Give the backbone structure.
Amino acid sequence: MATTAKARIAAGLGIVAGTVALAACSKPAPDVTVQSGSTSVVVKPSTYCFDPDKCKKHGIDVPSISSGYDDKVLVDVPRKVLGHGWAINVVDLDNKTSLGNSSAITDSHSYRVAANLNNGKPFIVQVVQLDGNKTDGSIWSFIVTVDPNKS
């Protein structure tokens, strides 16, 4: 009986140790914060690359934020993303045409996007992490909608 109890304890400790080891290996992907007026939205990456060979796909949750026509939407990235460099791509929601993009951002953790960029129609903003001057595959996306009642 004592041998069985010791075997169960050893097996239980093995499971706990394995779980702790797996938890230590799984790194959290950084989130991007978007703000318009007093509204703030956390954007999780659809794909995040911890290094060029280890990209992890996450769910496709594309949040949206509402803004006044003449307002700007503030995009704020954490230091981890700033350290790699990042850029903004803006795409029309209906026909997927580019509405503009930023150059590489390496000296600031925030960037402002004009809400009236698509003449009052919704559009998608993509935040991409860079590796040199090209994207490393990490992407955060959100939709900007314009509320004519907001100023």
